[in-house]
Amino acid sequence: MQRCAVLDKIRNNNYLLISFFVFAIGLYGIIQVFFHGQEHSYGVSREVPFGLLLVGYAFFVGISVGLSVIATLSHVFKFEAYHVRSRHIALLSFASLIGAFFLIFWELGGPFDLQILRFVKYYLNFEITSPIWWMSTFYLFETPLLALEVYLLIRGDKKSTFYAGIVGFVLGIVAYSTLSMVFAVNAAKPIWHSSQFTISFLVGALICGGGVAILLMFLRKDNERNREESIYAISKMLFFLLIVSAFIHTWTEIISSYGDGLLAQSLIAVMKSPLAFNHYFFELFIGIVVPFVLLLIGKFRSLSYAAMASLFAIIGVFFSRYDTIIGGQLIKVESTFLPKLELSLYQPTLAEITILISGAGLAMIIYELGHKYLPMHEEK
């Protein structure tokens, strides 16, 4: 027993060191922004103002929402099969949200760019007709609420946790839906301007939540409570969500292929761009087909197969966010001065890539510190 405790301590320290190393990778990008500025360091332009960091923001917020749903299924709706260390899941949800804010902070140019001040000034004007204003407001409440939920779970206050979980569950779904609405209301971008855009965002978030929960069980094998039931339940949920995601992809492409409308022309143009490989290989094959097959082979009960399926599914969701957010901007708006559709160009820079990795590292550090210093053991 003592030997196991020592091994767990060594393993936890290694995880923490790895987290700091991952975070340190982003120092390259931060230094680039500090000395050369945002315009020189990032690959964004007037035609493509949203780059990899905004994609990362949407991705990590989605992970936070998905994990919050998994935690809520356990300690609010009392589905015992989803009880996968609810304190750890709630902490991971909070850590992912902080990692997302880290990315959007550097997307705005960091502390040395006036965009931060412009954003604060814009928010204080209470532009309630703006989706960005509502998104910011929802996350202004969601962030401390997630921290409160972690605190209440650690205290074991079941009644308060129940109410905090209900509010957090609703607020998280609404906030993430509003984030997708920031893109979807833009009628000048046909790929964004559809009802399935928001649904696709939410389905991807739930896939990430289930996937990260399974990966947590795989990496932290010291949890034995309801383990087999949890693997089976979350694997089946992941399997169902993959079917839903495939359904959305299929009918979006079929319906948009009819006629020669702006959406059909936009999708055809994007499919002739470098994003076509991302879409067919990473989104569909790696993100849907491979996890689908792995879950079937493992019969929803093998942790190893479920972990591999989860990793591939999460990769697929990331590229789905990348392709939709970047792909929606590549189409230049058709007008009198631009009678035919043309493609803009975007390539992530090394600075953007390293800062994105650093955001993941920050989320890992927050979780590992909580795991190390907070009483995260579950009630028996």
Uncertain stretches of 5 or more adjacent residues: none
How far apart, in Å, are the first and last alpha carbons? 18 Å
Strand coverage percent: under 5%
Q: Kindly provide the name of the CATH class.
A: Mainly Alpha
Globular, elongated, flat, extended or rod-shaped: what is the shape? Answer: globular
CATH architecture type = Up-down Bundle
What percentage of residues falls in helices of 4 or more residues? over 70%
User: What order do the helices and strands follow?
Assistant: HHHHHHHHHHHHHH
The total number of structural domains is 1
| Rounded average pLDDT | 83
> Sheet bearing the most strands, described?
none
CATH fold name: Formate dehydrogenase/DMSO reductase fold
Q: How does this model look, in words?
A:
By secondary structure, the protein is mainly alpha-helical. The protein has one domain (7-373): Up-down Bundle (Formate dehydrogenase/DMSO reductase fold). It has 14 helices and no strands. The longest helix has 30 residues, at 227-256. It starts with a helix and ends in a 7-residue tail after the last helix.
Topology:
Elements: H1 2-25, H2 27-36, H3 38-41, H4 52-75, H5 86-107, H6 115-124, H7 131-155, H8 158-184, H9 195-219, H10 227-256, H11 262-271, H12 275-298, H13 303-330, H14 350-373
Helix pairs in contact: 1-14, 2-14, 4-5, 4-8, 4-9, 4-13, 4-14, 5-7, 5-14, 7-8, 8-9, 9-10, 9-13, 10-12, 10-13, 12-13
